[in-house]
Q: What sequence folds into this?
């Protein structure tokens, strides 16, 4: 992250930390600025890349971005003898063994959240989430069931209905690009950065067809999509007889 930040600054970027975007100022059907506690920062082009807050900001620009935020965690075990396997995806988990021997796994258990407020504290790992992760890992690798969990980390992932990113600059308002990576963002970030540069500067991605990552794919989405996918918070859970099959 630091390397990206320095490289951006070397190219003239100004990074304002602790300056949440509170909203988008619109005029004449276009985005003209970002509202912050210190005033409006004017813009010709705007990229909305605020993770789980992207849907709220996109709404200001008249764009409907369907997102379901969830807290996800990873766990790391103590080092074990190397297995003849690289990454493994199974039992509701994904992960890999590091060269040092630690099993780093997560992803399988999401704690679904309602809207994430701008002043939301940073998520921290929690025992209720770690336990099912550790149990699933022990089931996946029974011979490693004795391994102790030595580390964990947590974050909030914004999930699109199909789990794929949105990288799109819709015709209306025309100067707003939406960039939300759903739950697959780390690995894609170098290519995403280049695609974003293309979309903003050239008006389209010059090296890949991003049609499948457009917002338009959600045009006919059922308004009840979160509930239908079972992605609701315990408080919003439907009565048992209404549960989706
Ligand atoms: C535990 C865990 C493990 C993961 N493992 C992997 C993995 O192995 N591989 C992988 O590819 N992906 C992984 N992911 C998913 C990956 O982190 C996300 O896909 C990716 O970070 C999403 O990128 P993003 O740019 O859309 O949003 P984010 O990374 O969430 O970035 C959004 C940024 O916007 C800022 N922001 C939010 N609101 C505002 C606001 N109002 N004003 C100003 N700034 C704001 C945030 O501070 C943040 O810096 C993991 C996620 C978690 C939580």
A:
């Amino acid at each position: 992250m630091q390397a990206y930040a320095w490289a951006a600054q070397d190219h003239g970027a100004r990074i304002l930390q602790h300056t949440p975007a509170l909203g988008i100022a619109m005029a004449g059907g276009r985005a003209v600025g970002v509202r912050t506690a210190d005033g409006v920062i004017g813009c010709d082009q705007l990229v909305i890349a605020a993770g789980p807050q992207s849907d709220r900001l996109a709404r200001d620009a008249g764009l409907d971005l369907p997102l379901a935020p969830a807290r996800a965690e990873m766990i790391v075990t103590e080092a074990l003898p190397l297995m003849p396997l690289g990454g493994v995806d199974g039992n509701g988990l994904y992960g890999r063994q590091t060269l040092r021997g630690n099993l780093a796994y997560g992803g399988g258990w999401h704690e679904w959240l309602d809207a994430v407020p701008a002043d939301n504290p940073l998520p921290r790992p929690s025992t209720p989430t770690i336990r099912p992760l550790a149990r699933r890992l022990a089931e996946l690798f029974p011979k490693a069931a004795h391994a102790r969990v030595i580390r964990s980390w947590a974050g909030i992932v914004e999930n699109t209905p199909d789990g794929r990113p949105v990288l799109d600059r819709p015709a209306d308002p025309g100067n707003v690009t939406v960039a939300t990576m759903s739950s697959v963002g780390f690995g894609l970030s170098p290519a995403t950065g280049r695609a974003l540069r293309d979309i903003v500067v050239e008006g389209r991605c010059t090296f890949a067809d991003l049609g499948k990552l457009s917002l338009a794919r959600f045009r006919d989405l059922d308004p009840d999509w979160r509930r239908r996918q079972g992605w609701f918070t315990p408080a919003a859970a439907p009565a048992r007889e209404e549960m989706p099959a």
In short: The chain has two domains: 44-67+162-221, 68-159. The domain at 44-67+162-221 is CATH 3.50.50.60 (FAD/NAD(P)-binding domain). Helices lie at 2-10, 54-60, 127-140, 185-202, 225-228.
